[in-house]
Amino acid sequence: MLAGGFLAASGAFQTGEAPVAARFLYWMTVMLAGALGGGVVSALVDRGGWFDDNPPLQGALIAVTLTVPLTVVIWVITSLAFHDGRLVPARLVMFAGPVFIITCAMTALNYFTQKAPPETHAAATGGAPPRFLERLPLKLRGAEIFAVEAEDHYLRLHTSKGQDLILMRLSDAVAELEGLEGAQVHRSWWVAKAAVAEARRGDGRATLTLTDGATVPVSRAYAKALRESGWI
Predict the structure, then answer these.
(1) Which member of 20, 79, 91, 213 has the lowest number of beta carbons within 10 Å of its beta carbon?
(2) Is residue 189 exposed (0-12), middle (13-18) or buried (19+ Cβ within 10 Å)?
(3) Cβ neighbours of residue 121 closer than 8 Å, sequence gap 6 or more
(4) CA-closest candidate to residue 176, choices 217, 221, 118
(5) For residues 191-209, b (16+ Cβ closer than 10 Å) or e, as one string?
(6) DSSP type of residue 70
């Protein structure tokens, strides 16, 4: 929302003639629409695994895919805010360039501000068990954790007693899993080292096969740390 505030204050893209309050409402609405759309497109691209080993190309795919629907949304918002609600088709194409520029900038900013891949966790020697074990559903209590997989806002737990879903962010789960020997190997996967039955490298991409048969992709961003730790 800081970007929206800056664009509103500067009167970017010929919005400077509008009252300050109207500009802020307009740009905050635009940024919210972009954030929601970006979240949906990013989730689809992440789930498909497209260009996961090539972040710049993946970011370009997200920006291009998002530009098309977002151009239409912003055309409607702008028409309602500044043109008395008149939807003039001829104006639609005028929004494509500015929307693409802002989408590229926000996508790039998102990639640059992402946290570096966490280091692999070593097994704990004594002390309290990992906090994450307390979150296991009753039917999985006492099970060996093989992997944790992000699915939208949920986590799929792969364990020796089967699978289940819990509502939690993967980043929070990774922090609470410290104490179990494992690592995040992909933006959507954390894997216990003991659960890895096989590691393969081919076509420039590594995959892990778990003891329960699940196949886990390894992102290039995480591959170096995993190689140094002897995983692959």
Answers:
(1) 213
(2) buried
(3) 177, 178, 179, 180, 181, 182, 183
(4) 118
(5) bbbebbeebeeeeeebbbe
(6) H
- Rounded distance between C-alpha atoms, residue 51 and residue 64, angstroms: 14
CB within 8 Å of 109: residues ≥ 6 apart: 3
- For residue 164, CA distances in Å to 37, 46, 135 come to 28, 21, 11
CA neighbor of 27 nearest in space, from 55, 5, 45, 49: 5
Q: What count of other Cβ atoms lies within 10 Å of the Cβ of residue 34?
A: 21
pLDDT tens column, 11-48: 666 676 677 787 788 878 878 888 888 778 776 766 55
Q: Where in the chain is the domain with CATH 2.40.50.1020?
A: 131-228
Beta bridge partners of 165: 156
pTM for the full predicted model: 0.54
> What pLDDT does 113 receive?
59
State residue 115's pLDDT score.
47
Q: How many other CB atoms are there within 10 angstroms of residue 123's CB atom?
A: 11
Superfamily designation of domain 131-228 = LytTr DNA-binding domain (2.40.50.1020)
Distance (Å, whole) CA 27 – CA 224: 40
Return the structure tokens found at 198.
Answer: 């096989």
Q: Identify residue 205 by its one-letter amino acid code.
A: R
